[in-house]
Amino acid sequence: MSASLAASETSTKAAAHTTGPSPAVMGTYARQNLVFERGEGAWLITAAGDRYLDFASGIAVNVLGHAHPRLVAALTEQAGKLWHTSNLYRVEGQERLAERLVASTFADKVFFCNSGAEACEAAIKAVRRYHYVSGKPERWRIVTFSGAFHGRTLATIAAGGNDKYLEGFGPPVEGFDHVPFGDLTAAAEAIGPETAAIMIEPAQGEGGVNVAGVEFLRELRELCDKHGLLLVFDEVQCGMGRSGKLFAYEWTGIAPDLMPIAKGIGGGFPLGALLATEDAAKGLTAGTHGSTFGGNPLAMAVGYAVLDAVLEPGFLDGVQQKALRLKQALAAVKDSHPNLVEEVRGQGLLTGIKVKVAPAEVVKAAIGEKLLVAGASDNVVRLLPPLNVADEEIAEAIQRLSRALDRVSASTT
Ligand SMILES: *Cc1c(COP(=O)(O)O)cnc(C)c1O
Fold first, then answer.
1. Is residue 3 part of a domain?
2. Contact 181, 148 (CB under 8 A)
3. Distance (Å, rounded) from C-alpha 13 to C-alpha 264?
4. In angstroms, what CA-CA distances link 61 with 169, 240, 350, 387?
5. Ligand 1 binding pocket includes 206 (Cβ within 6 Å)
6. Overall pTM surpassing 0.70 (yes/no)
7. Which residue range(s) make up the domain with 306?
8. pLDDT tens across 302-355, in order?
9. Cα 56 to ligand 1 centre (Å)
């Protein structure tokens, strides 16, 4: 078939699906029937020119909003030079970004990958190898928490323990002991001679914006120290400035041994990483783990530009101020919609409202007001604006959310 014939056939097929999703894309997501053509800061714009205020940020990913000039420049500059060499060779961008991450956190070492699940998977492997090279191969189990989300690979769905994500995929990967989120006694009782680590999100995102108390996280640190366990903080969603600090662990005065990150670090470019202390990283020696695309020069260039912006003086203070503004405004929304809003939750700009209807109804009504928000478990609707969102955009989002809730009220009464 000639190239032009192939092209025209493709366009005819595509044209048939302009009113709904193409069946050529596997149906693994319950998508909104919305297509965006471009983005500008906190706004997503359709081909028809409709502007949506984006308080989902690609699920806490677009920390600097859409098409940020610094990120566009970093990506295009790198694109003109070098895309990929693999990890057969040194990658300059990896060394530069790793050193900046090490300088800004508890970590001594960084492993680069492409997603949150991959970063969590690396953390699980690092934990097991750590004890293996320490002469304790019998220690390989990890204590995890109810409501946890660590990704969709076979090991990370087992770590998360959510039945909905495990169903039909055969026997779950062994080695995870689940205890209720926030229950120190249960965590302590779950520790046995085979326990290798405790793994937790300092603030759960998918689980419904559940923030672990500072005290609880400190007590987990103590438990780990007492029993020779590694402490893993999954900061894939709450990290990279979302909590109001560069990483959420900074609110606690303690640090983890391992920290998978992703989502925000790439600002929209696929990028994940596992941060570790020298000791916790000691099992992952040459040949034990890898990723072809991990630490790809394009991802490194963007990741560095994101980190550079988030570390700029005043940026994180700005996040904290905006978070306070958003939280206060949401409290007012709760007061004006007591029939629908049960609670306002969050840490920094990882915020949510617990609603008394299905979150999907609120998400849908918000779309009617051209506001994008994201559902979560536990009947929560998440508001995850870009970290550089403007005060006026917060005010605008609150008005749109209020109107969306009015719509839901009207349709349920
Ligand atoms: C999203 C998320 C993951 C998985 O990240 P993917 O990039 O979707 O694989 C893991 N942990 C947490 C806390 C997350 O929010």
1. no
2. yes
3. 35
4. 28, 9, 11, 10
5. yes
6. yes
7. 69-310
8. 999 999 999 999 999 999 999 999 999 999 999 999 999 999 999 999 999 999
9. 15
